[in-house]
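Forum > Structural Biology > Help requests

Title: Can anyone predict the 3D structure of biotin--[biotin carboxyl-carrier protein] ligase?

Hi all, first post here. I have the sequence for biotin--[biotin carboxyl-carrier protein] ligase but no way to get a structure on my laptop. I'd be grateful if someone could post the structure tokens.
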Amino acid sequence: MTSENPPANRWSDLERPPLNGAALRRALVRDGGLVRDVEVVAATGSTNSDLAALAAAGRAEEGAVLVAEEQTSGRGRLDRTWSAPPRSGLFFSVLLEPSKVPVHRLGWLPLLAGVAAASAVSRTAGIDTALKWPNDLLVTVDGEERKAGGILAERAGENFVVLGIGINVSLGAEELPVPTAGSLALAGARGLDRDPLLRAVLRGIEQWYVPWRDALGDPAASGLQEAYAAGCATLGRRVRAELPGERTLVGEAVALDGDGRLVIAVDGGGREAVGAGDVVHLRAATA
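Reply #1:
Sure, ran it for you. Structure tokens for biotin--[biotin carboxyl-carrier protein] ligase below:
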């Protein structure tokens, strides 16, 4: 992991200014708040891996935030890679310690981050953002749903969870990792300043995490289940769920259960709750 000292060419791309770690700390760290520290590094392999290592070494506590201007070995779900040009997006991780929350409710953490990120993007960038279960942020580009962000929650030791978030902010079409991806710029964002967006996402995580943690992970009591369902583009859609063991389910996504699993009304009858796998939204024409 590199230091927070900026590289000599930090202003080589004036449309992608660097984040200011000191300014972020002044804005976000407060007595009684969730965020305890914010560190910005020029580049690293994975902010999730780095923050997990710091927690294991006793050098980070709940509320530590690590932000990378460039992430060279970013990971998504199912071991997919996540890469983007320097300072073109937000790539950061937050260390949480939900030690009193039952393990079966920890699956709500990426969904919680999705609610926080989607509302922050909608409010700050001025574009509609939807959630694809369980961890994708969707924006509309040229009339099509595109993934502009992703979330990865990983256990770190006995008590910690590292919550990683990546959002494509200013990427142009030629910079996308795959042609079907999207960015806030391509979706017509009214502003591409990453600083207020990062602040809004982190404040949103605190807004949802604290009552969810205090409710011992109860998604109904904390209001999280209702909020996620309201913003989830997967519910009410025909989907194909590709599950571990090469199983596939096709049907309508009808609900979220109390553990954050997607409930599918399977073609041919019956319902099944899906907790892991890859979910594809099916167009009406392919139903």
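The two ends are 47 Å apart (CA to CA). Residues 1-12 have pLDDT under 50 and may be disordered.
Shout if anything looks off.
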